[in-house]
């Protein structure tokens, strides 16, 4: 009978990870856990303490992971290697994330895998298929990508442009055909062992994929096709997943149990963190021993129909305007507010590098602000502001995180009020700058109040009004009496500002001081 070693990549929600591992191993299967090294050490300690006596659980060497990076492949390889060594009886290796849930029983899954001697992995020709709908395609491979596109946008795109302008394209290894597909696969033991041996023998191929973009969609997909006869591969995933009109993963909720169980899959993602009842029912189903499932492939059409019905209990998931009503109770948003936009951007990027929180610049104030492609909702300032909560939820999903930063102009106080009343944990960090005459003159010209030909005496008469307006914006924020409002001031010493930053980002004093001493933070 098949024995499954689940390769579990996760980064949050220790109690759910513990329950998930206990359920999966209760039926005689195995779990190899990689818990992101960026996550809190106490969360990992909680997981290891709870599962230390479970002989069917092992832990992989931890590394820091980032979306689109090689680190996700390396984390998977670490977990696979740990599983191969710890579980010699495992016949199959199944990739899961912390928000996946079983939609069949273990007995059904074992019988399903025993019925056919094959690997299950999406693998379509990289260049000839239409798996990639938008954005980079060939550029993923022929240019080297060293930086994280979500956390280090400027570095990512600057290095890409430099390579492109200099014609620094590279060759794909001659003897491999690059394939692409979902990273959620189920592979036989001999396939996994062949992949690990290939990695040792072909360092050139591994080096190539280390600097491709989003290699978790190409690495295993390419190697399996290279090593395994086509007749032994079924190009599909056994994990049910759907995407919204905006290209974002659909989350499943408590009233979706019947929909999920009827699909021709073994697992599903993403199960909403709020769907505790659904997780409990699916966990009980995994241990039930049941094998009588009537399956179909009607999931996407059924989901679309029921979502449009408009009555809770008669639909799956929330309606669009209901999704806008909150960012999510378990999420954290830091709003960095500053009139000098370049100052807020410096703080945001410094926090990205030192704290590891993803951030977006003045997306509600600056039309040219770089925003990920989210299906069109991000294209104009008018759309971004009209659907601001929906946009922020999509950004949380895009970055696969529960912590985000954005920059805001102090004049945008209505948006601050909106977000500060949300169920999410919302914090406001105001960077208070000094405004000399030179800066005010430059501002007057930038916003069209003055030109290079405007007489100096006219400009001088404007300056008191501009200075008062900037001060008044800060006064309005203070008078709003937001409960979680911190201020960093340009005229305050670094140690005092560091204490504020440590509170805002929940970081140690040393990291707070490093942020406060960001080079040229307040420089014009």
| Strand count | 17
Strand content: 5-15%
**Helix segment count?**
21
Low-confidence stretches: 306-324
Assembly annotation: single chain
Helix content: 40-55%
Give the end-to-end Cα distance, rounded to a whole number of Å.
68 Å
Characterize the overall form.
Answer: elongated
User: How many strands, which pairing sense, and closed or not: the largest β-sheet?
Assistant: 5 strands, mixed
**Average predicted local confidence, pLDDT:** 88
Largest sheet: spatial strand order: 3-2-1-4-9
Radius of gyration: 26 Å
Q: What structural class do helix, strand and pairing data support?
A: alpha/beta
Plain-language structure description:
The protein has 524 residues and is of the alpha/beta class. The model is unreliable at 306-324 (pLDDT under 50). Helix content is 42%, strand content 13%. The chain has helices at residues 14-25, 41-51, 71-86, 106-114, 139-142, 153-166, 189-201, 203-210, 219-227, 257-261, 276-286, 299-307, 320-323, 341-355, 381-386, 388-399, 413-420, 437-446, 456-479, 494-505, 509-516; strands at 4-10, 30-35, 57-59, 92-97, 101-102, 119-120, 124-125, 179-180, 186-188, 233-234, 239-240, 267-268, 332-337, 358-360, 403-408, 425-432, 485-489. The radius of gyration is 26 Å and the shape is elongated. A 5-stranded mixed beta sheet has the order 3-2-1-4-9, with helices on both faces. Strands 14-15-13-16-17 form a 5-stranded parallel beta sheet, with helices on both faces. Strands 5-12-11 form a 3-stranded mixed beta sheet.
Task: Provide a short characterization of the protein structure.
The protein contains 21 helices and 17 strands.
């Amino acid at each position: 009978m098949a024995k499954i070693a689940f390769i579990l990549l996760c980064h949050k929600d220790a109690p759910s990870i513990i329950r998930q591992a206990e359920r999966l191993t209760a039926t005689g299967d195995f779990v190899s856990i990689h818990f992101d090294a960026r996550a809190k050490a106490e969360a990992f300690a909680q997981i290891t303490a709870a599962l230390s006596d479970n002989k069917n659980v092992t832990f992989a060497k931890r590394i820091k992971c980032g979306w689109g990076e090689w680190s996700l492949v390396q984390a998977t390889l670490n977990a696979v290697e740990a599983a191969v060594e710890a579980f010699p009886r495992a016949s199959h290796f199944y990739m899961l994330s912390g928000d996946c849930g079983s939609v069949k029983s273990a007995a059904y899954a074992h019988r399903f895998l025993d019925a056919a001697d094959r690997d299950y992995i999406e693998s379509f020709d990289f260049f000839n298929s239409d798996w990639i709908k938008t954005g980079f395609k060939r550029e993923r491979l022929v240019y080297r990508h060293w930086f994280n596109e979500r956390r280090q946008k400027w570095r990512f795109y600057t290095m890409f442009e430099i390579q492109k302008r200099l014609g620094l394209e590279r060759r794909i290894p001659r003897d491999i055909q690059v394939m692409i597909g979902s990273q959620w696969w189920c592979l036989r033991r001999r396939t996994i062992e062949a992949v690990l041996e290939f990695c040792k023998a072909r360092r050139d191929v591994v080096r190539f994929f280390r600097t491709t973009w989003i290699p978790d969609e190409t690495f295993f997909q390419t190697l399996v096709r290279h090593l395994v006869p086509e007749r032994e591969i079924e190009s599909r995933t056994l994990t049910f997943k759907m995407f919204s009109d905006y290209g974002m993963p659909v989350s499943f909720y408590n009233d979706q149990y019947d929909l999920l169980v009827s699909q021709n899959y073994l697992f599903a993602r993403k199960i909403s963190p709020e769907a505790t009842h659904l997780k409990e029912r699916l966990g009980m189903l995994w241990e039930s021993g049941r094998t009588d499932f009537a399956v179909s492939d009607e999931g996407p059409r059924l989901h679309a129909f029921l979502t449009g019905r408009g009555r809770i209990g008669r639909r799956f998931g929330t309606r669009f305007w209901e999704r806008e009503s909150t960012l999510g109770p378990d999420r954290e948003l830091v709003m960095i507010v500053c009139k000098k936009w370049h100052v807020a951007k410096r703080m945001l990027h410094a926090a990205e590098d030192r704290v590891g929180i993803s951030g977006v610049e003045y997306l509600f104030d600056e039309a040219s602000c770089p925003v990920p492609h989210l299906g069109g909702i991000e294209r104009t300032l008018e759309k971004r502001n009209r659907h601001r909560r929906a946009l922020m939820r999509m950004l949380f999903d895009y970055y696969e995180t529960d912590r985000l930063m954005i920059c805001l102009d102090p004049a945008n106080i209505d948006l601050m009020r909106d977000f500060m009343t949300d169920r999410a944990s919302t914090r406001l960090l105001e960077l208070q700058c000094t405004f000399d005459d030179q800066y005010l003159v430059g501002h007057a010209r930038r916003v069209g109040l003055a030109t290079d030909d405007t007489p100096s005496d006219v400009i001088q008469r404007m300056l008191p009004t501009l200075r008062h307006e900037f001060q008044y914006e800060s006064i309005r924020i203070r008078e709003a009496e937001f409960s979680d409002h911190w201020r960093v001031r340009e005229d305050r010493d670094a140690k005092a500002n560091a204490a504020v930053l440590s509170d805002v980002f929940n970081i140690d004093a040393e990291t707070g001081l490093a942020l406060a001493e960001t080079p040229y933070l307040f420089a014009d």
